[in-house]
Amino acid sequence: MKAFLIFTTFFIGYFTSFHSANAQTGPDSVRMKQRMLSSTEQKHIRVNYYKGILKVDSIKADQVNKVQSDFKASVKALASDKTLGDDTRRAGIQSLIAERNRKLGAILSPEQMEKIIPSTERQAAKGIKKD
Description:
Blueprint: H1 2-17, H2 29-36, H3 39-54, H4 58-80, H5 86-107, H6 110-116, H7 119-126
Helix pairs in contact: 3-4, 4-5, 5-7
C-alpha cells in the first residue's frame, strides 16, 4: 500500500509539474515566421509566386502584384467602413472586383486570369450570379 501511494504521488507530480510540455501553449512556428518577414520580403515572395504560376516575367508579375495588393487594400478599407450598409458594401466590393478584373485583363490572358482569380469573382465580373 505504501508503494502504491508513493507511486501515485510521483505519477501525479510528474504530469502536473511539466507545464512547458503542453503543445497547445507554444506559438505557432509558421505564423511566427510569417510575422518576421518584412514587407519587401513578402512582396518578393508574392512576385515569385505570380512568376511561377502565370509563367510571366518579373515586370508582369510585379504589375499583377500591384493590382492584387491595391484590390486587397481597397476591399479591406471598404469592409471596415461601418458607416456603409450591407448592400452598399456588397455593391462596392463588386465594383472593385470588376475594376481589378479589368486591370488584370489588360495585363494577362484569360487562361492566366483563371489561375489567380476565383471562378465566383470571374462570374461576378460578367454579371452572372449563382443561385
